[in-house]
Write a structure and sequence with these properties.
The chain is an alpha/beta fold. It has one domain (12-140): Rossmann fold (3-Layer(aba) Sandwich), CATH 3.40.50. 39% of the residues lie in helices and 14% in strands. The chain has 5 helices and 5 strands. It has helices spanning 19-31, 44-51, 77-86, 104-112, 125-142, and strands spanning 12-15, 38-41, 65-68, 95-99, 117-120. It has a 5-stranded parallel beta sheet with strand order 2-1-3-4-5, with helices on both faces. Helix 1 (19-31) links the parallel strand 1 (12-15) and strand 2 (38-41). Helix 2 (44-51) packs parallel to helix 3. The longest helix has 18 residues, at 125-142. The mean pLDDT is 88.
Length: 149
């Protein structure tokens, strides 16, 4: 019987414009020793620049996971999700939607655009922390993600 590979630290791209939500995610990542692997951008334009390694992000590591808010300035998360999943070079990156929207239309549209998960942000600090911990644990300990450059 083969031994499964040890969990590896994932490079996570958080696309979030709310400073409080960003702080919460950072705290959870720090608690679990993953803070060095979290990159945060505040809008969809920056997210696509990082994912395509353009401009100031030319040497950025390719993320293993994107946590994407839907309601973003300049370019919304819905558009970012559709663009990522339509691009053969980016489509294998798992995208978890992490948003305040609980609208059924957003859930359906996100999955239609191949989101790998849709999570509504709880308003309670402890519940939000628990959700972020569950997401990070799921992607670091439960699933196997493809290797990349």
């Amino acid at each position: 019987m083969t031994t499964p590979p040890a969990p590896r630290a994932l490079d996570v791209l958080l696309v979030e414009d709310d400073p409080e939500d960003t702080l919460l995610v950072r705290e959870v990542f720090e608690q679990h020793g993953l803070a060095d692997h979290l990159t945060v951008v505040g809008d969809g334009v920056e997210a696509m620049d990082l994912l395509r390694r353009r401009g100031e992000y030319a040497s950025a590591p390719r993320p293993d996971l994107v946590l994407l808010d839907l309601n973003l300035p300049r370019r919304g998360g819905r558009e970012v999700l559709a663009e990522v999943k339509a691009d053969p070079e980016l489509s294998s990156i798992p995208v978890g939607v992490l948003t305040t929207s609980s609208a059924e239309e957003d859930v359906v549209r996100s999955y239609a655009n191949h989101a790998n998960a849709y999570v509504t942000k709880p308003l309670d600090w402890d519940k939000f922390t628990g959700v972020v911990h569950s997401i990070s644990r799921f992607f670091t300990e439960v699933v196997r993600l493809p290797a990349h450059d």
